[in-house]
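[Q] Does anyone have a clean structure-token version of this?
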Amino acid sequence: MTIAFLGIGIFALSMLGGLAPRVVAGRLSEDRLHDVTGVASGLLLASALLVVIPEGFDVAAEAAEVGQAFTNRPVFLGGAVLVGFIVMLILEGLGVAHAVHEEHHDHAEGHGHGHVHHPASTSVLAVGLSIHAAADGLAIGAAAAAGDTTFSLLVALAVLLHRVPAAFSLGVFTLHETERQGQVTASVAGFALATPIAMWLSYLLLDGASEQLIALTLLFSAGTFMYVATVDTLPEIHNPDMGRRSVMNVLLGAAVFAMVFVLVDAAGWLEHSHG
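[A] Here you go.
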């Protein structure tokens, strides 16, 4: 029941974020959107390092104890994280873009001109974002299949807070590229559905599966989280005008998630055994 409500909540808020540019795009500055994205990336990065990776190694250790692990070598488990990162890198290299990045340069004529670096079409960006969103759903579904509600809620929280600004960026881009409202809504809806569908499918497939498989899925998902958090912020961090501010936003997001994690752990809500 919890995973059903999570899926509905993620879909609803993603739709809200994606359609919001119709109302507030003119009142939300580009710098403010970058701030929100940076904080959300920090949350996602902290989720990968504080929750998903430790949980993956923990599940793998339990799998070894009950004889479900065909290997429990750290290099093999760490390799699952690397594979998740590399898969996202390959997709980006093939043109399945994850995000829209805007850079502003001053021309010799003395005026500013915005260059938007993005895929060739709205559909390509929507597909790329949806694939990345599906990877987020895989992480939540695997965490739920591991048998711990608190961990899956923590992962879902980080994903949700990252999905909303990503959906907003997609909404801004589609409005910029087309005036057909139906196409805008369809692109946002596809993106909003990707995470819940992947979450529900992965939970159904992994529920009752070996703990080794669940562990590898969690670690693979952690690699995708780390890639997304990195690619979302590096363009801004490398920008001399906003690099320091972007770093502070990422650190803020990571610190907030770490604080929540410490409080949840201190309350004893993370004491669990996997089912």
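[Q] Thanks! Anything notable?
[A] The chain has nine helices and two strands.
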